Amino acid sequence: MEVIPAIDVMGGRCVQLVGGRPETKVDYGDPVEVALKWKQAGARILHVVDLDAALGTGSNIKLVGGIMRSTGLQVNFGGGIRTVDYARKVLESGVDRIVLGTFLIEDMKQGFKFTKKLSEEYGSKRLIGSVDSRGGFVAVKGWTERTGIKAAELTAMAEGFVWGFLYTNVDVEGQMKGVDIEAIKKVVKSTSKPVIVSGGVTTIQDIKSVGAAGGWGVVLGKALYEGRIDLAKALSGKQ
């Protein structure tokens, strides 16, 4: 199973939030330096999120290019990708995969017309559907708005247009209290595509539990930055 460090960027800095709330921000330094640190520890993929773009307060897209050039690692990038033009811009910047959240929900109303278009132009292997769950329902616009769509419903409907899904349980994200395995199992069972799990991963046992539930990978955030999980040991499975 793939273990993927998160690099959440706000105001040009690498930060971590709890539940997506800006007032909980903790600064962890320069994003490029942090990315190089995770590369040295053995990371193969980075999960980069532009929090300013997700919240509609700015853009850190230029930093993503710096991370890619400095590390040479695969980058999955999300945050604020809400139009076809911006999705194209990010894909053509060299990012390996883009994460579509609000875009996917809005496009669902049109039968995934634009997601299909991007899939045809760039290949579905470069698209990840973001399934952010709050209270069991998909949340959008930087987790600020909850829809009436259940996570497993979205994956079942959208799987034909994407490489896989990023499932984030916002209710446990950033709290370092463990994962909700039953919720993860429901999402994994709802799709034949790979599912990357984010939110609540606090220990090596959590990582193993996600793997046992069928998860393709996990994204490590606060637990990694607070030293609860050692990335090198997590990658080797020895911790």
Task: Tell me about this structure.
The two termini are 15 Å apart. Helix 1 packs parallel to helix 3. With 239 residues, the chain is α/β, with parallel strands linked by helices. The protein has a single domain, classed as TIM Barrel, CATH 3.20.20. It is globular and about 45 Å long. The chain contains eleven helices and twelve strands. Strand 7 and strand 8 form a beta hairpin.
Can you identify the CATH superfamily? Aldolase class I
| CATH fold-level assignment | TIM Barrel
What summary fits the major beta sheet? 8 strands, parallel, barrel
Q: What characteristic shape results from the CA principal axes?
A: globular
Quickly give the structural class: alpha/beta
Number of domains: 1
| Order of helical and strand elements | EEEHEHHEHEHHEEEHEHEHEHH
- End-to-end Cα distance: 15 Å
Q: Total number of helical segments?
A: 11
What multimeric state do the chains show?
A: single chain
Percent in helix: 25-40%
β content, as a range? 25-35%
The chain-level mean pLDDT equals 91
Low-confidence stretches: none
